[in-house]
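Listing S7. Sequence submitted for prediction.
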Amino acid sequence: GISDISISGTPCMAANCVFQPSASGGSTLSATTLVNAINLYGGNVIVDTTGGVAGNGDIIVNGAITTAPSAPSSLTLKAHRDINVNASITSAGSQLGISLIADQDANGTGSIVIAPNVQLIANNASISMSAAQGIAIGAGAKISTANISDFGGASANLNFTANANGYGGSFLDYGGTFIAGQNVGIAAQDITLAGTIARRQDN
């Protein structure tokens, strides 16, 4: 089945955790549980809407995910439909690769929305987003492969695919800031940029 997940669970007691819905209509996964999985066990942590009984397959981030992993880690959000990020995802420790995948079943219904003033800080790791029906970045949002002070991330990239799976999604930036150590890649049917693209600073 497909269900919704709100991040505002079941504890994960090992590396490479996969969190999936456990109830009909959706589940709530606390941001603290997710942070603990990354900080204590590291590895590749995945939140996936596969599971449950019924729902749209959305992931909604309403609670800040403020991590400090001791070793390079990654966080992947995989939704059958939409991903709405209303709170920041950051790392103040080791690298945190961030991957947002909407429309994982490739039926053309998924989009990604990053709310105004939200920060995605990977701390020397790459960030990627993929959606079939578009990616929207709110005013004042920051998406950075560097750390919270905009240093580091020399070999990391930002990649945005707004028209995944052959659909005609658009990339809409309403005034965000994008910081990358290497490349910024944007694939979309239409691209609107109202913000700033910058290269990270040297340490």
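Caption to Listing S7: primary sequence and predicted structure tokens for the chain studied. The first helix runs from residue 31 to 41. The helical segments are 31-41.
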